[in-house]
Every structure is written in C-alpha cells, then in structure tokens.
Amino acid sequence: MRLITLLGIVMVLPPVLLGLGGCGEHRQDAGTPTTTVETPTAAIAVIAPIAGFTGSGTVRFSEDPQGLHVVADVAGFHPGKHGIHIHEYGDLSAVDLSGLGSHFNPTGQEHGAPGDHPHHAGDLGNLIIGDDGQGHLDEVVPGLSLSGPTSIIGRSVVIHENMDDLTSQPAGNSGKRIAAAVIGIAKP
Ligand SMILES: [Cu+2]
Ligand SMILES: [Zn+2]
User: What's the pLDDT tens digit per position in 39-81?
Assistant: First the structure.
C-alpha cells in the first residue's frame, strides 16, 4: 500500500517539477530570482580565547576610501602589547588555532607593520592592553576589503600572546594564538 502511494507521488512529481503541468506564465514567475546579492558593507569578528587563556571582545570592520576601517574593543587580556592579524582561513577546529593558517597575504609580501612597505595585508600591528585588561584599536588599513580578492570575509582575526615586533619573519615572533574569531558579515 505504501509502495503504491510512493510510486504514485514519483509519477506525479516530474511533470510538476519540470513545469509541464501548469500554464506558461506561472512557470516563468517561479524561475525569476526575487533576491539580489549585495556587497557587504560591514563585518564583525566576536573574539573568544583558547583553553587556558582569557580575553574576549569584538573587532568591527567597515569599508573606507583608504582601505578598511578596523575597530577592536576587547577585555580580559593580560596587560601589554599583543600581535593582532587577519589570518587566511576561518577554521577554528584546532585547539591551537593552527587551522587559521598564516597571515592573510594576497600580494606575496613579507611580514611588517601596517602602513609600512612591505607588509602582509593582514598585519594589523599590536593591540595595546591596559592594566585593566582592556584594549581598543582604531585604524584604517589599506589593502583589505569586504569583497573581491582582498576580502576578509570568512577569514579570521587572531590575537597573540606576545608583542608583534613588526620585523621578524614570517609572523613578528608574537607567540601563541590565544584568541580568535571568524570574520562574518555584519548587519549594516
Ligand atoms: Cu597572527
Ligand atoms: Zn604578517
């Protein structure tokens, strides 16, 4: 009985799916896309620490005529300078965050400081954490965007245990990756 019912559905479905059963006008309407794909104008990364470390916060990104406007607000980190970078991947599955890959480097440069040449596009410099554990960073970074070949969407923000010396290769000798987030599209 069940088999007969299933067969009945299977035999009825193909003409409906192909649009052969109804009138032509409706078939055309059903195939017209009703949504448009828009370029993101804002992105956000919600930072969380790895096991054994503390520190959380947000990093917000918006398009700017000079590049990408980056604003980070974090709390709970140990005081001092911490290297902060855009890394190439958004894979948070490894406990040591190794799945995030290297610094985002779409133009094949060496590691350095933002604003200097050469540097990885993903080099954001250092996040300065005060005695209260809080840090704020606000900069416009050239060479990054929210669409196209230099897009950071789906990549990641990483905060390191130590200071980025802005010179050592390939990553400024900034130590462990202690906190990170995948960069997602934000509500404009
Ligand atoms: Cu990094
Ligand atoms: Zn770098």
Answer: 899 999 999 999 999 999 999 999 999 999 999 999 999 999 9
Catalytic residue among 82, 103, 119, 155: 103
136 is catalytic: no
**Quick one: 75 and 145 in the same domain?**
yes
Q: Which ligand is nearest to the CA of 180?
A: 1
Domain holding 176, by residue range, is 42-185
Q: Which tokens go with 105?
A: 């480097």
Q: 85, 119, 155, 164: which is the annotated catalytic residue? A: 85
Q: Are residues 87 and 113 in the same domain?
A: yes
pLDDT on residue 2: 45
Catalytically annotated residue among 82, 155, 160, 164: 160
The pTM score is 0.80
Task: Look up 111 and say whether it is catalytic.
Answer: yes
Range list of β-strands (E), the chain: 42-49, 56-64, 67-75, 80-87, 123-129, 135-141, 156-160, 177-182, 184-185
